[in-house]
Amino acid sequence: MAQVVVRRLEEGVKQALKARAARHGCSMEEEVRRILRRAVQEEPAAAAPGLGSRIAARFAGLGLDDEWPTWHGHEAQPMEPPQ
């Protein structure tokens, strides 16, 4: 079994854990184990969509359905000066 040491825990947090453990009829150590078990079993938060996905969602349905050309691997050409 692993051990975890928590340093610099505020006195108020320690007292709240102690009171919570007493309400649940267990030791403070067991209460902390229960809290940690619940914390790691929770569903992880979904990752926020990236910038490109957010931009695409914002402009979805505005009629920009054509394929955009891919410029990867092509050299950029300077513009011709106006005459």
Number of helices: 3
Question: Describe the biggest sheet?
Answer: none
Spans of 5+ residues with little confidence (pLDDT < 50)?
Answer: none
Please give the radius of gyration in angstroms.
Answer: 28 Å
Summed up:
The mean pLDDT is 87.
Structure explained in plain terms:
The chain is an all-alpha fold. The protein has 3 helices and no strands. The chain has helices spanning 11-23, 28-41, 51-59.
How is this fold's topology laid out?
Elements: H1 11-23, H2 28-41, H3 51-59
Give short descriptive properties of this protein:
83 residues; mainly alpha; 0% strand
